[in-house]
Amino acid sequence: MSLAEEYTETSEGSRLEQGVAYIQHNSRAYLLIAPAAVFLLAVVGYPIIETFRLSLYQSPADSNIETFVGLQHYVEIFNSDIFYRLLWQTGRWVVVGVAGKTLLGLLIAIHLKGDIRGRKFFRTAFLIPWGIPYAISAVVFRWIEHPQFGYLNAILLKLGIIEQGVGILGNPSIAWLGVVVADIWIGTPFMAIIFLAGLQSIPQELYEAAAIDGAEKWHQFRYITLPQLKSVVLIATLLSTIWTFVSFDVIWTMTGGGPISSTATLVIHIYQVGLQNGNLGRGAAYSVIGFLFLFVFAIIYLRIYTRGGDEL
Q1: Any stretches that span the bilayer, and where are they (predicted)?
Q2: Most buried residue among 6, 28, 188, 215 by CB atoms closer than 10 A?
Q3: CB distance 278 to 262 below 8 Å
Q4: Using the 8-state DSSP alphabet, how is residue 229 labeled?
Q5: What Rg value do the Cα atoms of the chain yield, rounded?
């Protein structure tokens, strides 16, 4: 046996021994997390597998008979103009909603971090919109934007901006704006509190050193605050994106996806197709597509933010 072969066998044996030792050393940890892992597989894994299985069948809600159709649902969805319109409306809803929550949340967090009068009161008060059930908040905003009795139209009429009440939620061109404003109002407090926690973890010495060097407030924000908040912004925006994508109650309560499906997102359409129309197989196929979109987005998003080698 040559020296190279002996060295290879020795290296392989050493790696095997290290692997066995690592498993033995961490076996207790694996046993402790096993119940949680089994629970997650049962609660999360099974529904995903069952949804994918159902998407391969023609399964009417009023019948126990399932007919295997393979990828037919997917082919019909991707060949449908409705699907691409839903993608556009869902993307618009998510991008505007998450951007609004992030910017307003960061602005509020910066002000709440400062030494302002009543800071404790405002920190508590800003959590109220997030603590109210979403459906109740949606009903409130539906009345605020009412063309005859809403406060928004009353204010605009008083200021002379409009001459008569505008039916925001009844106009297919601007109804989505009326809904996304409500969603931003609901979700901003969560972003503000998360950003505030991140801001408070930044060492004050960094700002003091920057001020001594003559750095202005904008430069301190750009070169100290934003880099230090990178991991916080990543987690907050990722969670907000997922929650906004799957949001149902705000849209359904305010417009039901109308008028003329102008505020319908992928989630709203899944409900309409699968439950209202009774086409469970087609609804499941839409669900699988939505899940894959979110899964791929999360992977790409995490890779972009960690590309520089930083860990969360």
Answers
A1: 29-49, 93-112, 124-144, 174-197, 232-252, 284-304
A2: 188
A3: no
A4: T
A5: 26
Give the chain's domains with CATH numbers.
Answer: 2-54 (no CATH), 80-309 (1.10.3720.10)
Contact partners, residue 263, CB within 8 Å, separation at least 6: 89, 93, 175, 176, 179, 251, 254, 255, 257
Residue 97: C-alpha distances to residues 127, 190, 242, 275 (Å): 18, 13, 11, 26
Place of tokens 């801001």: 199
Tokens 């949606």 found at: 138
Burial class (CB in 10 A: 0-12, 13-18, 19+), 109: buried
Give the single-character DSSP code of 28.
H
Identify the CA nearest to 246 among candidates 279, 293, 281, 285.
293
What are the tens digits of pLDDT across the range 251-278?
999 999 989 999 999 999 999 999 898 8
Describe the crossing of helices 280-305 and 46-54 by its angle, rounded to 10 degrees: 130
Q: What are phi and psi of 279, to 5 degrees?
A: -95, 85
Q: Using an 8 Å Cβ cutoff, are 182 and 93 in contact?
A: no
Q: Count Cα neighbours of 238 within 13 Å in the Cβ-side half-sphere.
A: 19
In tens, the pLDDT along 286-295 reads 999 999 999 9
pLDDT (mean) for 217-232: 86
Q: Give the residue among 221, 184, 186, 189 at the shortest CA–CA distance from 108.
A: 189
